[in-house]
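Researcher: Here's a chain I'd like modeled. Treat it as a single chain, no partners, no ligands.
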Amino acid sequence: MSNIQVSEVTVIPVKPKKGLLGFCTFVLNDAFFIRDVAIYNTLSNEYGIRLVYPGRRSSSGDILNTVHPINRSADEAVLKEVAKEFERVITKIKRSETENFEGVLSNEEKEKRD
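Model: Modeled as a single isolated chain. Structure tokens:
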């Protein structure tokens, strides 16, 4: 069992491109704020997403991670909470788009009647 507590998860969706679905931020154990974690789609886990942690390029051109989980239980704890928030945000967006679309249809129907 993981001792990692993940809170204050924020997901910012983007227009999907090359598998990128959005970015997220979160707090670990009420002590560390992590930002700029990319969310990509994947088929390799039950959540359908994978996280790519921020890094920087060294002078030799290698990419060095600046922050990342160092064990599977920490990775799973973060992934689970981010996936939950990602699903909530996407569901809210889809619901809003459906409501807006239905509103457009309703207005068109009103115009036909008039």
